[in-house]
Amino acid sequence: MRAYFRNIYAAVSTILIGMRITFKEMFHPSVTNQYPYQYYFEKRKNVRGIHKGFRGQLYIRMEDCIGCKKCAMICPVDCIYIETSRLEKGITLSDTRAVVRLKDQTVWIGELLEGDEKIEPGTVVKLRDLDGNLHESPSEHVEHVVTSKKRRLKLDRFDIDMSLCMFCGLCTEVCSTSCLYMTQTHEFSTYDRASLLFHFADPSIYEGLTPDETETKAEDGADASEGRKQKAARRRQREETA
Amino acid sequence: MTVTAAMFYLFAVLTVGSAVLVVTTRNVVYAAFSLMLTLCSVACLYVMLHADFLAATQVIIYVGGILVLVLFGVMMTSGKLDMKLRMERGRLIPGSLVGLILLALLIRIIYQSPWQVQDTNMLESTTKSTTQSIGESILGQYLLPFEIVSVILLVALIGAVLISRKEVKEIEES
Amino acid sequence: MELLSSLIFMLVIAAALLGFVMLLALILVLAERKVSAYMQDRVGPRRVGPFGSLQTIADAIKLLLKEDIISLQADRKLFILAPYLVFVSSFAVFAAIPFGRNLIASDINIGILYIMAISSVVVLGIIMAGWASNSKWALLGAMRSAAQMVSYEIPLALSILSVIMLVGSLRMQDIVGAQSGGLFSAQNRWILLDNPFTFLAFFIYFISALSEVNRTPFDLPEAESELVAGFHTEYSGMRFALFFLAEYANMFAVSAIAVTLFLGGWSGILPGYTFLNGVPGFVIKVSVLVFVIMWLRWTLPRLRVDQLMSVCWKYLIPIAFFNLIGVGVWILIFD
């Protein structure tokens, strides 16, 4: 019997306590972040900025793409469309640049002076930047080294459909020259779905390249036609001796 | 045609029509909801007879209580949504015979009973509520039937609770 | 001709009331969203119109443009009829609410009994909605809701009965007239303060009315997290809007009845035409009660269905009975 009235008293008093709390909450300032107009990170203790490894929108440095199509093959949703074609005879394109990525996500792009794709412990990796700065780092801090590669293909089409992309980052991991990377952009909504198909290739850069037999020899090797001539010469030699 | 007469015809048609629907429809749930319409129209007819308390009580008890009970029963036991009631072939003649006999009986009773028709003044009966007179007669002249009905309802309530509750084992106070 | 003129008169009044109820629903939905937002340390709608005032219109337009889906297994006739039944019975209560001295749509001589009767019809609409959806959650929600509403009608009626015993008449304007003395008069006080027993009756009425309207903490029938959406799971678009509208109209109606019965209706704090009098006073009082209803929604957790039934049958009904006897004894001794 006493429990009955104690129940009633407990119910009523706790309801009143709860109501007082919510009433007081009405007068506390609101913590709503008015998102597109007021977009700040630093002021609140528990809201950080975008971290370094963030997988945002994809971007590619076209001067480094060799057209290997590894990214298109690994993409789980097939959102990368690449079409390549052979260069005309005698035309060479510049080599791609080397990329060194450290374990704290810093990236150096330029010309590799010391170091290789296989990172030996105990060595030092040295790279000269595009601006001319010299960077070096012991190989324990280096995560990934990409040496420069030859570009033998013309890229007619390199489209990425961001409306399909699922931001997994697999394409950036398999890229042979580490030229496909994810930026920190994550707010790129549009009103029109077709505008989410990003075109990166520019076929017009391949026009006006004239075949130049003597001066366009790259620093570390002959051009493609020279290589074919040498191969043909070697075969003839083998046939003669066989 | 006055407003009153038009209203009366409207509610009479509603009552009889929905009652026919209750009896003839194949779907049990439709029958239950047509019963709701019948009971509400009867309440409106009570209003037209200046029996205001009775009309409101009709809605509260019949529609809000008994019909809900009927619906619970129908919905819990009919199983499928489209269970159909079927009438067997050979039952039409005896059924209509019984119906006609019942109708004759009712008409005779209606015409033979002495209805007390009060010649009331319209304004007076709309302002004074019948609630007071009903209350006074229930607790005055008809007190004994009222108490007996209350006791019967109490017995029914206790019986229902007793039949439907689970066996509660005595738990030792520890 | 007399038939036509009285019909047109009735239609005009009904249309005016309907317009009022629509406007009310507009304001109440927005008020609920804003109040709930401020209580949860956020701002509510604020982009559509100044202070988000046109938000409900935007929502209504969105609901109107939605596709009307009726599942193939559902019972079409009952499915379509149910929201109208619920809305019409919720709306019919407004015909007996006194807004001002001469502002009552129909001063029925059994006013409060009519209101109780019409509230009972809402239960049927909900059962119809639950059954016709032919879906397990809808049926369960409807059955629970029916059980809840039918059970809580008893303490509702008992608490109203104590007011009627004091006033001696069922007519709404008479009830308001019996409180015309204001807060401080000796004879015609507001019924809330007349009696310690009527003070308790107010709270019993308020809790039972909360349950009749299916508001938290008694909103298990339409609980969003337990039963998908209870009896209106299968409803979309305008039909759902009708249920929604009926809920807010019901909320206002129940608060208006509480104000009329216990807080003096349209009569003011002091006798005569002083402040808190007339229609503005009535609206302010009802708004305070509606705010309390919303406040309770965002404070209390939901009751389980067995706790709900236990509160009704084991606590509210015995207390309401003793209350009734107490009011009777008080009237006998002191009046």
**Helicity range of chain A:** 10-25%
Number of domains of chain C: 2
Question: Which oligomeric state applies?
Answer: heterotrimer
Count of DSSP helices of chain C? 10
Task: Tell me the strand percentage band of chain A.
Answer: 15-25%
Model regions low in confidence, pLDDT < 50 over at least 5 residues of chain C: none
The number of helical segments of chain A is 4
> Roughly how much helix do the residues of chain C carry, as a percent range?
55-70%
Low-pLDDT residue intervals, each spanning 5 or more residues of chain A: 214-222
Strand content of chain C: under 5%
The rough form of chain A would be described as: elongated
Main beta sheet strand tally, sense and closure of chain A? 5 strands, antiparallel
Shape of chain C: globular
Which structural class do you get from the secondary structure elements of chain C? mainly alpha
CA-to-CA gap between the ends of chain C?
51 Å
Rounded mean pLDDT of chain C is 85
Report the C-alpha radius of gyration of chain A, rounded.
Answer: 29 Å
Describe the structure.
The complex is a heterotrimer of chains A (242), B (174) and C (335). Chain A is α+β, with helices and mostly antiparallel strands and 242 residues long. Chain A has a domain at 99-148. Chain A is 21% helix and 22% strand. Chain A has four helices and ten strands, in the order H-E-H-E-E-E-E-E-E-E-H-E-E-H. In chain A, the strands form three sheets. In chain A, strands 6-5-4-3-7 form a five-stranded antiparallel beta sheet, with no helix packed on it. In chain A, strands 2-8-10 form a three-stranded antiparallel beta sheet, with no helix packed on it. Chain B has one domain: Up-down Bundle (Four Helix Bundle (Hemerythrin (Met), subunit A)). Chain B has seven helices and no strands. Chain B has helices at residues 3-24, 28-48, 52-78, 92-112, 122-127, 130-138, 143-164. Chain C folds into two domains: 1-65; 70-334, no CATH class. Chain C has 335 residues and is mainly α. Chain A binds chain C through residues 4, 7-8, 15, 18-19, 21-23, 25-26, 28-32, and chain C through 35, 37-43, 295-296, 298-300, 315.
Set out the fold topology.
The complex is a heterotrimer of chains A (242), B (174) and C (335).
Chain A: H1 2-25, E1 58-60, H2 70-74, E2 80-86, E3 98-102, E4 107-114, E5 124-129, E6 134-138, E7 142-146, E8 153-161, H3 170-174, E9 180-182, E10 197-199, H4 224-241
Antiparallel strand pairs in A: 1-9, 2-8, 3-4, 3-7, 4-5, 5-6, 8-10
Chain B: H1 3-24, H2 28-48, H3 52-78, H4 92-112, H5 122-127, H6 130-138, H7 143-164
Chain C: H1 2-39, H2 55-64, H3 76-92, H4 111-132, H5 136-167, H6 172-177, H7 196-212, H8 237-262, H9 278-297, H10 305-334
